[in-house]
Input
Amino acid sequence: MSYTKRLDGRKSFEETRPISAKAGVIPRAHGSAMFTIGKTVAYAAVYGPRELHPKFLQNPKTGILRCHYNMMPFSGSGERVRPGPSRRSREISLVTEKALAPVLDLSDYPNAVVDVFIEFPQTDAGSRCAGICAASIALADAGLPMMDLVAAVSVGRVDDKIVVDLDYNEEAYEGGPVADTPVAILPSTEEFTLLQMDGEISKEDLIKALRLGQKAVKKIIEAQRQALKEKYVGEEADDAGNGE
Amino acid sequence: MLNESLKEHLIESLKKNVRYDGRKLTEFRPVVVEYDISKSAEGSARVKIGDTEVLAGVKLSVEKPYPDTPEHGSLVVGVELLPLSSPEFEAGPPSIDAIEIARVVDRGIREAKAIDTKQLCIVIGEKIWTVCIDICTINDAGNLLDAAGLAALAALQNARFPFYDGTGIDYKTKTDKKLPLTKLPIGVTVFKIGNKHLVDPLVDEQFVYDARLTVSTTPDGKLCALQKGGDKPLSLEEIEQMIDLAIEKAHELREHLQDEDN
Output
Protein backbone atom coordinates (compact mmCIF):
# COMPACT_ATOMS: atom_id res chain seq x y z
CA MET A 1 0.00 0.00 0.00
CA SER A 2 1.13 3.46 -0.78
CA TYR A 3 -0.36 6.96 -0.86
CA THR A 4 0.01 7.69 -4.55
CA LYS A 5 -2.38 10.54 -5.30
CA ARG A 6 -3.66 13.36 -3.09
CA LEU A 7 -7.27 12.85 -2.10
CA ASP A 8 -8.36 16.38 -3.06
CA GLY A 9 -6.71 16.20 -6.49
CA ARG A 10 -3.63 18.33 -5.76
CA LYS A 11 -0.88 17.59 -8.29
CA SER A 12 2.04 17.44 -5.88
CA PHE A 13 2.70 16.35 -2.30
CA GLU A 14 4.55 19.64 -1.79
CA GLU A 15 1.65 21.81 -2.92
CA THR A 16 -0.57 23.78 -0.54
CA ARG A 17 -4.27 24.25 -1.13
CA PRO A 18 -5.26 27.54 -2.86
CA ILE A 19 -4.37 30.55 -0.67
CA SER A 20 -5.88 34.01 -0.48
CA ALA A 21 -5.22 36.86 1.94
CA LYS A 22 -6.70 40.28 2.54
CA ALA A 23 -5.73 43.00 5.02
CA GLY A 24 -8.03 45.50 6.72
CA VAL A 25 -11.30 43.56 6.60
CA ILE A 26 -12.64 44.71 10.00
CA PRO A 27 -12.93 48.52 10.15
CA ARG A 28 -13.39 48.73 13.95
CA ALA A 29 -10.15 46.86 14.65
CA HIS A 30 -6.73 48.54 14.75
CA GLY A 31 -5.51 45.89 12.35
CA SER A 32 -7.24 42.96 10.71
CA ALA A 33 -6.96 40.30 8.05
CA MET A 34 -8.62 37.34 6.45
CA PHE A 35 -6.58 34.31 5.40
CA THR A 36 -8.00 31.39 3.43
CA ILE A 37 -6.26 28.11 2.67
CA GLY A 38 -8.48 25.60 0.91
CA LYS A 39 -11.73 25.46 2.86
CA THR A 40 -10.21 26.83 6.07
CA VAL A 41 -11.06 30.51 6.56
CA ALA A 42 -9.52 32.62 9.34
CA TYR A 43 -10.31 36.16 10.44
CA ALA A 44 -7.93 38.00 12.75
CA ALA A 45 -8.41 41.34 14.48
CA VAL A 46 -5.85 43.26 16.56
CA TYR A 47 -6.85 45.65 19.35
CA GLY A 48 -4.22 47.63 21.19
CA PRO A 49 -1.81 48.38 22.60
CA ARG A 50 -4.44 49.13 25.26
CA GLU A 51 -4.52 49.05 29.04
CA LEU A 52 -4.37 45.53 30.44
CA HIS A 53 -7.00 44.39 32.92
CA PRO A 54 -6.85 42.82 35.46
CA LYS A 55 -3.96 44.96 36.63
CA PHE A 56 -1.90 42.19 38.22
CA LEU A 57 -1.23 40.82 34.72
CA GLN A 58 0.49 44.06 33.71
CA ASN A 59 4.21 44.05 33.07
CA PRO A 60 5.87 47.43 33.79
CA LYS A 61 8.76 46.54 31.48
CA THR A 62 6.83 45.68 28.34
CA GLY A 63 3.47 45.27 26.70
CA ILE A 64 2.26 41.73 26.29
CA LEU A 65 0.64 39.82 23.45
CA ARG A 66 -2.58 37.94 24.11
CA CYS A 67 -4.11 35.65 21.47
CA HIS A 68 -7.62 34.21 21.44
CA TYR A 69 -8.35 31.30 19.05
CA ASN A 70 -12.04 30.55 18.62
CA MET A 71 -14.14 28.47 16.25
CA MET A 72 -17.58 29.81 15.37
CA PRO A 73 -20.27 27.33 16.50
CA PHE A 74 -21.09 26.36 12.89
CA SER A 75 -17.49 26.07 11.68
CA GLY A 76 -16.76 22.42 12.51
CA SER A 77 -17.08 19.66 9.97
CA GLY A 78 -19.43 17.68 12.24
CA GLU A 79 -21.65 18.69 15.13
CA ARG A 80 -22.09 22.26 16.38
CA VAL A 81 -19.12 23.49 18.38
CA ARG A 82 -20.21 24.76 21.77
CA PRO A 83 -19.41 28.47 22.11
CA GLY A 84 -16.81 29.58 24.61
CA PRO A 85 -13.28 28.47 25.40
CA SER A 86 -12.38 24.78 25.46
CA ARG A 87 -9.16 23.08 26.57
CA ARG A 88 -8.28 22.74 22.88
CA SER A 89 -8.90 26.40 21.99
CA ARG A 90 -6.98 27.62 25.04
CA GLU A 91 -3.95 25.53 24.19
CA ILE A 92 -4.01 26.70 20.57
CA SER A 93 -4.29 30.30 21.80
CA LEU A 94 -1.16 29.72 23.87
CA VAL A 95 0.95 28.24 21.06
CA THR A 96 -0.30 30.96 18.70
CA GLU A 97 0.98 33.59 21.14
CA LYS A 98 4.37 31.86 21.27
CA ALA A 99 4.46 31.61 17.48
CA LEU A 100 3.93 35.35 17.03
CA ALA A 101 5.68 36.90 20.05
CA PRO A 102 9.28 36.53 18.71
CA VAL A 103 8.67 39.05 15.91
CA LEU A 104 7.07 41.68 18.15
CA ASP A 105 8.81 44.24 20.33
CA LEU A 106 6.27 45.71 22.73
CA SER A 107 8.81 47.26 25.11
CA ASP A 108 7.56 50.74 24.16
CA TYR A 109 4.18 49.86 25.66
CA PRO A 110 4.67 48.95 29.34
CA ASN A 111 1.58 47.70 31.20
CA ALA A 112 -0.30 47.40 27.91
CA VAL A 113 -1.75 44.45 26.05
CA VAL A 114 -2.12 43.74 22.35
CA ASP A 115 -5.14 41.49 21.87
CA VAL A 116 -5.39 39.28 18.81
CA PHE A 117 -8.75 37.64 18.17
CA ILE A 118 -8.82 34.80 15.65
CA GLU A 119 -12.13 33.42 14.42
CA PHE A 120 -13.14 30.75 11.94
CA PRO A 121 -16.42 30.65 10.01
CA GLN A 122 -15.35 27.45 8.20
CA THR A 123 -12.60 24.88 8.82
CA ASP A 124 -11.03 21.92 7.05
CA ALA A 125 -7.83 21.19 9.03
CA GLY A 126 -4.87 23.53 9.39
CA SER A 127 -6.85 26.12 11.32
CA ARG A 128 -4.14 27.06 13.84
CA CYS A 129 -1.71 27.71 10.97
CA ALA A 130 -4.27 29.74 9.02
CA GLY A 131 -4.99 31.69 12.22
CA ILE A 132 -1.30 32.51 12.71
CA CYS A 133 -1.01 33.65 9.08
CA ALA A 134 -4.04 35.92 9.46
CA ALA A 135 -2.85 37.26 12.82
CA SER A 136 0.57 38.09 11.42
CA ILE A 137 -0.98 40.20 8.64
CA ALA A 138 -3.34 41.86 11.15
CA LEU A 139 -0.44 42.79 13.48
CA ALA A 140 1.40 44.40 10.58
CA ASP A 141 -1.84 46.13 9.50
CA ALA A 142 -2.13 47.55 13.03
CA GLY A 143 1.24 49.24 12.49
CA LEU A 144 3.01 47.49 15.35
CA PRO A 145 6.82 47.29 15.21
CA MET A 146 7.68 43.85 13.81
CA MET A 147 10.95 42.18 12.94
CA ASP A 148 9.31 39.94 10.37
CA LEU A 149 6.04 38.37 9.35
CA VAL A 150 5.23 34.85 10.52
CA ALA A 151 3.98 32.19 8.11
CA ALA A 152 2.55 28.85 9.15
CA VAL A 153 1.53 25.64 7.46
CA SER A 154 1.12 22.04 8.45
CA VAL A 155 3.49 19.42 7.10
CA GLY A 156 3.78 15.72 7.87
CA ARG A 157 3.36 12.35 6.38
CA VAL A 158 0.50 10.40 4.93
CA ASP A 159 1.49 6.74 4.70
CA ASP A 160 4.80 6.67 2.77
CA LYS A 161 4.70 10.26 1.49
CA ILE A 162 5.96 13.49 3.06
CA VAL A 163 3.27 16.08 2.44
CA VAL A 164 2.53 19.78 2.87
CA ASP A 165 -0.77 21.25 4.11
CA LEU A 166 -2.84 18.22 5.08
CA ASP A 167 -6.58 18.64 4.71
CA TYR A 168 -9.14 16.88 6.91
CA ASN A 169 -9.34 13.77 4.72
CA GLU A 170 -5.55 13.36 4.77
CA GLU A 171 -5.42 13.78 8.56
CA ALA A 172 -8.05 11.06 8.82
CA TYR A 173 -6.40 8.79 6.18
CA GLU A 174 -6.85 5.17 7.14
CA GLY A 175 -4.64 3.41 4.57
CA GLY A 176 -1.47 3.95 6.61
CA PRO A 177 0.15 5.96 9.40
CA VAL A 178 -0.25 9.74 9.43
CA ALA A 179 1.72 12.50 11.14
CA ASP A 180 0.48 16.07 11.32
CA THR A 181 3.06 18.72 12.15
CA PRO A 182 1.89 22.31 12.24
CA VAL A 183 4.81 24.72 11.98
CA ALA A 184 5.26 28.48 12.01
CA ILE A 185 8.41 29.88 10.44
CA LEU A 186 10.17 33.26 10.41
CA PRO A 187 10.90 33.79 6.73
CA SER A 188 14.13 35.80 7.16
CA THR A 189 15.91 33.25 9.36
CA GLU A 190 13.85 30.13 8.56
CA GLU A 191 13.59 29.48 12.31
CA PHE A 192 10.57 27.73 13.79
CA THR A 193 8.27 29.46 16.29
CA LEU A 194 5.52 26.81 16.31
CA LEU A 195 6.23 23.12 16.28
CA GLN A 196 3.73 20.48 17.25
CA MET A 197 3.23 16.96 16.02
CA ASP A 198 0.80 14.20 16.45
CA GLY A 199 0.95 10.85 14.74
CA GLU A 200 3.88 8.65 13.88
CA ILE A 201 7.02 9.67 11.97
CA SER A 202 10.75 8.83 11.95
CA LYS A 203 13.31 11.48 12.80
CA GLU A 204 14.61 11.46 9.21
CA ASP A 205 11.15 11.95 7.76
CA LEU A 206 10.38 14.71 10.27
CA ILE A 207 13.48 16.65 9.21
CA LYS A 208 12.50 16.20 5.56
CA ALA A 209 9.00 17.43 6.35
CA LEU A 210 10.33 20.49 8.19
CA ARG A 211 12.53 21.34 5.18
CA LEU A 212 9.45 21.10 2.97
CA GLY A 213 7.71 23.46 5.38
CA GLN A 214 10.52 26.01 5.00
CA LYS A 215 10.01 25.82 1.25
CA ALA A 216 6.22 25.94 1.36
CA VAL A 217 5.98 29.06 3.54
CA LYS A 218 7.72 31.14 0.85
CA LYS A 219 4.48 31.13 -1.13
CA ILE A 220 2.48 31.98 1.99
CA ILE A 221 4.73 34.91 2.88
CA GLU A 222 4.26 36.19 -0.64
CA ALA A 223 0.46 36.13 -0.21
CA GLN A 224 0.75 37.90 3.17
CA ARG A 225 3.00 40.64 1.77
CA GLN A 226 0.74 41.05 -1.24
CA ALA A 227 -2.31 41.52 1.02
CA LEU A 228 -0.55 44.32 2.92
CA LYS A 229 0.70 45.93 -0.29
CA GLU A 230 -2.78 45.86 -1.80
CA LYS A 231 -4.18 47.72 1.17
CA TYR A 232 -1.45 50.33 1.61
CA VAL A 233 -0.36 50.89 -1.97
CA GLY A 234 -4.07 51.17 -2.77
CA GLU A 235 -4.54 53.83 -0.10
CA GLU A 236 -1.60 55.87 -1.37
CA ALA A 237 -3.07 55.81 -4.85
CA ASP A 238 -6.41 57.04 -3.46
CA ASP A 239 -4.73 59.90 -1.60
CA ALA A 240 -2.94 60.97 -4.75
CA GLY A 241 -6.26 60.94 -6.55
CA ASN A 242 -7.70 63.30 -3.94
CA GLY A 243 -4.89 65.73 -4.64
CA GLU A 244 -3.44 65.49 -1.13
CA MET B 1 -18.15 55.90 24.95
CA LEU B 2 -18.79 59.46 23.83
CA ASN B 3 -17.80 62.56 25.75
CA GLU B 4 -20.57 64.95 26.78
CA SER B 5 -19.95 67.70 24.22
CA LEU B 6 -19.86 65.22 21.33
CA LYS B 7 -23.11 63.75 22.61
CA GLU B 8 -24.69 67.18 22.68
CA HIS B 9 -23.43 67.94 19.18
CA LEU B 10 -24.84 64.67 17.88
CA ILE B 11 -28.25 65.28 19.44
CA GLU B 12 -28.37 68.88 18.16
CA SER B 13 -27.52 67.68 14.64
CA LEU B 14 -30.20 65.00 14.72
CA LYS B 15 -32.74 67.65 15.73
CA LYS B 16 -31.95 69.27 12.37
CA ASN B 17 -32.26 65.87 10.64
CA VAL B 18 -28.50 65.76 10.04
CA ARG B 19 -26.59 62.48 10.41
CA TYR B 20 -22.82 61.90 10.34
CA ASP B 21 -22.99 59.99 7.07
CA GLY B 22 -25.49 62.27 5.32
CA ARG B 23 -28.39 59.81 5.42
CA LYS B 24 -32.02 60.67 6.06
CA LEU B 25 -33.23 59.62 9.51
CA THR B 26 -35.39 56.89 8.00
CA GLU B 27 -32.81 55.63 5.51
CA PHE B 28 -30.84 52.37 5.83
CA ARG B 29 -27.22 52.10 4.74
CA PRO B 30 -26.64 49.76 1.75
CA VAL B 31 -27.66 46.19 2.63
CA VAL B 32 -25.88 43.16 1.17
CA VAL B 33 -26.95 39.56 1.79
CA GLU B 34 -24.60 36.79 0.72
CA TYR B 35 -25.59 33.13 0.95
CA ASP B 36 -23.57 29.97 1.68
CA ILE B 37 -20.49 31.56 3.21
CA SER B 38 -19.57 28.54 5.35
CA LYS B 39 -19.38 25.03 3.92
CA SER B 40 -19.15 23.64 7.47
CA ALA B 41 -22.66 24.82 8.34
CA GLU B 42 -25.86 23.27 6.99
CA GLY B 43 -26.85 26.78 5.97
CA SER B 44 -25.12 30.14 6.26
CA ALA B 45 -25.20 33.77 5.26
CA ARG B 46 -23.35 37.05 5.59
CA VAL B 47 -25.24 40.31 6.07
CA LYS B 48 -23.64 43.71 5.69
CA ILE B 49 -25.45 46.91 6.55
CA GLY B 50 -22.96 49.62 5.71
CA ASP B 51 -19.78 48.68 7.62
CA THR B 52 -21.67 46.39 9.99
CA GLU B 53 -21.04 42.74 9.18
CA VAL B 54 -22.47 39.58 10.76
CA LEU B 55 -22.33 35.90 9.84
CA ALA B 56 -25.03 33.38 10.65
CA GLY B 57 -24.78 29.61 10.46
CA VAL B 58 -27.34 26.86 10.92
CA LYS B 59 -26.38 23.48 12.39
CA LEU B 60 -28.92 20.66 12.45
CA SER B 61 -28.90 17.77 14.88
CA VAL B 62 -31.23 14.99 15.95
CA GLU B 63 -32.38 15.21 19.58
CA LYS B 64 -35.10 14.02 21.91
CA PRO B 65 -38.11 16.41 21.85
CA TYR B 66 -39.15 18.42 24.90
CA PRO B 67 -41.77 16.46 26.89
CA ASP B 68 -44.43 19.15 26.33
CA THR B 69 -43.93 19.27 22.53
CA PRO B 70 -43.33 15.61 21.52
CA GLU B 71 -44.32 16.22 17.87
CA HIS B 72 -42.27 19.36 17.26
CA GLY B 73 -38.71 20.08 16.30
CA SER B 74 -36.91 22.78 18.28
CA LEU B 75 -35.11 26.03 17.61
CA VAL B 76 -32.09 27.52 19.37
CA VAL B 77 -30.72 30.98 18.57
CA GLY B 78 -27.34 32.13 19.85
CA VAL B 79 -25.54 35.41 19.34
CA GLU B 80 -21.81 35.90 19.85
CA LEU B 81 -20.75 39.53 20.12
CA LEU B 82 -17.19 38.60 19.22
CA PRO B 83 -14.42 40.77 20.72
CA LEU B 84 -12.96 40.60 17.20
CA SER B 85 -15.71 42.93 16.00
CA SER B 86 -15.51 45.87 18.41
CA PRO B 87 -13.17 47.28 21.05
CA GLU B 88 -16.17 47.35 23.39
CA PHE B 89 -16.85 43.60 23.32
CA GLU B 90 -15.02 41.36 25.75
CA ALA B 91 -14.18 37.69 25.70
CA GLY B 92 -16.19 35.59 28.12
CA PRO B 93 -19.73 34.35 28.64
CA PRO B 94 -22.47 36.04 26.55
CA SER B 95 -23.12 39.62 27.65
CA ILE B 96 -26.64 40.80 28.38
CA ASP B 97 -26.65 42.61 25.01
CA ALA B 98 -25.87 39.35 23.19
CA ILE B 99 -28.60 37.58 25.11
CA GLU B 100 -31.16 40.25 24.28
CA ILE B 101 -30.38 40.16 20.53
CA ALA B 102 -30.59 36.36 20.53
CA ARG B 103 -33.90 36.39 22.39
CA VAL B 104 -35.46 39.03 20.13
CA VAL B 105 -34.36 37.22 16.94
CA ASP B 106 -35.57 33.93 18.41
CA ARG B 107 -38.98 35.37 19.31
CA GLY B 108 -39.52 36.79 15.82
CA ILE B 109 -38.81 33.44 14.17
CA ARG B 110 -40.70 31.41 16.78
CA GLU B 111 -43.83 33.57 16.96
CA ALA B 112 -44.12 34.03 13.19
CA LYS B 113 -44.03 30.22 13.03
CA ALA B 114 -41.40 30.76 10.37
CA ILE B 115 -40.35 27.12 10.69
CA ASP B 116 -43.06 24.45 10.50
CA THR B 117 -41.66 22.57 13.50
CA LYS B 118 -44.13 19.70 13.08
CA GLN B 119 -42.29 18.75 9.90
CA LEU B 120 -39.09 18.47 11.97
CA CYS B 121 -40.45 15.51 13.89
CA ILE B 122 -38.84 12.18 12.98
CA VAL B 123 -40.37 9.84 15.60
CA ILE B 124 -43.05 11.29 17.91
CA GLY B 125 -41.74 11.66 21.43
CA GLU B 126 -38.40 10.16 20.43
CA LYS B 127 -36.51 12.01 17.70
CA ILE B 128 -36.77 15.48 16.27
CA TRP B 129 -34.52 17.84 14.33
CA THR B 130 -33.09 20.72 16.33
CA VAL B 131 -32.28 23.86 14.35
CA CYS B 132 -29.41 25.81 15.88
CA ILE B 133 -28.81 29.29 14.48
CA ASP B 134 -25.61 30.97 15.62
CA ILE B 135 -24.95 34.58 14.74
CA CYS B 136 -21.39 35.92 15.00
CA THR B 137 -20.44 39.56 14.60
CA ILE B 138 -17.47 40.46 12.39
CA ASN B 139 -17.66 44.26 12.56
CA ASP B 140 -19.95 46.36 14.75
CA ALA B 141 -20.73 49.64 13.03
CA GLY B 142 -24.18 49.88 14.61
CA ASN B 143 -27.58 48.17 14.26
CA LEU B 144 -26.40 44.64 15.01
CA LEU B 145 -29.93 43.67 16.00
CA ASP B 146 -31.49 44.15 12.55
CA ALA B 147 -28.42 42.66 10.85
CA ALA B 148 -28.57 39.60 13.11
CA GLY B 149 -32.25 39.01 12.38
CA LEU B 150 -31.77 39.26 8.63
CA ALA B 151 -28.70 36.99 8.69
CA ALA B 152 -30.61 34.36 10.69
CA LEU B 153 -33.37 34.26 8.07
CA ALA B 154 -30.95 34.06 5.16
CA ALA B 155 -29.06 31.20 6.85
CA LEU B 156 -32.36 29.35 7.39
CA GLN B 157 -33.22 29.80 3.70
CA ASN B 158 -29.81 28.46 2.73
CA ALA B 159 -29.95 25.36 4.97
CA ARG B 160 -30.08 21.83 3.54
CA PHE B 161 -30.57 18.71 5.65
CA PRO B 162 -27.52 16.47 6.02
CA PHE B 163 -27.94 12.77 5.22
CA TYR B 164 -29.58 10.89 8.10
CA ASP B 165 -30.09 7.11 8.05
CA GLY B 166 -32.21 6.85 11.19
CA THR B 167 -29.29 6.36 13.57
CA GLY B 168 -26.52 8.80 12.67
CA ILE B 169 -26.03 12.02 10.72
CA ASP B 170 -23.49 12.15 7.91
CA TYR B 171 -22.58 15.84 8.03
CA LYS B 172 -20.33 15.46 4.98
CA THR B 173 -23.29 14.60 2.76
CA LYS B 174 -25.86 17.32 2.26
CA THR B 175 -29.20 16.40 0.72
CA ASP B 176 -31.17 18.91 -1.36
CA LYS B 177 -33.97 19.00 1.21
CA LYS B 178 -34.65 22.49 2.58
CA LEU B 179 -36.04 23.49 5.96
CA PRO B 180 -39.85 23.73 6.12
CA LEU B 181 -40.06 27.54 6.12
CA THR B 182 -43.28 29.53 6.03
CA LYS B 183 -43.60 33.26 6.72
CA LEU B 184 -40.30 34.95 7.39
CA PRO B 185 -40.41 37.70 10.04
CA ILE B 186 -38.30 40.81 9.42
CA GLY B 187 -37.26 42.75 12.50
CA VAL B 188 -36.65 46.49 12.26
CA THR B 189 -35.55 48.59 15.22
CA VAL B 190 -36.73 52.20 15.37
CA PHE B 191 -34.78 54.53 17.66
CA LYS B 192 -36.11 57.60 19.39
CA ILE B 193 -33.63 60.40 20.02
CA GLY B 194 -35.22 63.62 21.33
CA ASN B 195 -38.42 63.93 19.33
CA LYS B 196 -36.96 62.23 16.24
CA HIS B 197 -37.34 58.65 15.04
CA LEU B 198 -34.56 57.04 13.09
CA VAL B 199 -33.54 53.63 11.79
CA ASP B 200 -30.25 51.83 11.25
CA PRO B 201 -28.16 53.76 13.82
CA LEU B 202 -24.41 54.16 13.79
CA VAL B 203 -22.51 53.15 16.94
CA ASP B 204 -22.38 56.75 18.18
CA GLU B 205 -26.11 57.21 17.65
CA GLN B 206 -26.67 54.12 19.78
CA PHE B 207 -24.93 55.89 22.67
CA VAL B 208 -27.46 58.73 22.78
CA TYR B 209 -30.89 57.20 22.14
CA ASP B 210 -33.78 57.65 24.54
CA ALA B 211 -35.79 54.60 23.57
CA ARG B 212 -35.98 51.96 20.87
CA LEU B 213 -38.60 49.58 19.60
CA THR B 214 -37.88 46.43 17.63
CA VAL B 215 -40.86 45.34 15.54
CA SER B 216 -40.90 41.97 13.78
CA THR B 217 -43.44 41.66 10.98
CA THR B 218 -44.47 38.89 8.59
CA PRO B 219 -44.88 39.48 4.81
CA ASP B 220 -48.62 40.17 5.27
CA GLY B 221 -47.79 43.04 7.64
CA LYS B 222 -48.80 41.28 10.87
CA LEU B 223 -46.74 41.89 14.00
CA CYS B 224 -45.15 38.82 15.57
CA ALA B 225 -42.71 40.19 18.15
CA LEU B 226 -41.89 43.45 19.89
CA GLN B 227 -39.13 44.61 22.18
CA LYS B 228 -38.85 48.03 23.74
CA GLY B 229 -35.47 49.15 24.98
CA GLY B 230 -33.86 52.29 26.35
CA ASP B 231 -34.34 54.39 29.45
CA LYS B 232 -37.17 56.72 28.39
CA PRO B 233 -40.88 55.97 27.97
CA LEU B 234 -42.83 55.95 24.69
CA SER B 235 -46.28 57.46 24.12
CA LEU B 236 -48.99 55.54 22.31
CA GLU B 237 -48.72 57.93 19.33
CA GLU B 238 -44.98 57.34 19.17
CA ILE B 239 -45.46 53.58 19.30
CA GLU B 240 -47.89 53.78 16.41
CA GLN B 241 -45.52 55.90 14.31
CA MET B 242 -42.59 53.61 15.09
CA ILE B 243 -44.56 50.52 14.06
CA ASP B 244 -45.58 52.17 10.78
CA LEU B 245 -41.97 53.03 10.04
CA ALA B 246 -40.77 49.53 10.96
CA ILE B 247 -43.33 47.90 8.65
CA GLU B 248 -42.30 50.17 5.79
CA LYS B 249 -38.61 49.39 6.32
CA ALA B 250 -39.29 45.66 6.70
CA HIS B 251 -40.65 45.63 3.15
CA GLU B 252 -37.40 47.17 1.94
CA LEU B 253 -35.23 44.70 3.85
CA ARG B 254 -37.29 41.75 2.62
CA GLU B 255 -36.26 42.64 -0.95
CA HIS B 256 -32.73 41.53 -0.08
CA LEU B 257 -33.78 37.95 0.73
CA GLN B 258 -34.16 35.30 -1.96
CA ASP B 259 -37.76 34.64 -2.94
CA GLU B 260 -39.20 31.59 -1.27
CA ASP B 261 -40.95 29.09 -3.51
CA ASN B 262 -43.80 28.69 -1.03
In short: The longest helix of chain A spans residues 203-241.
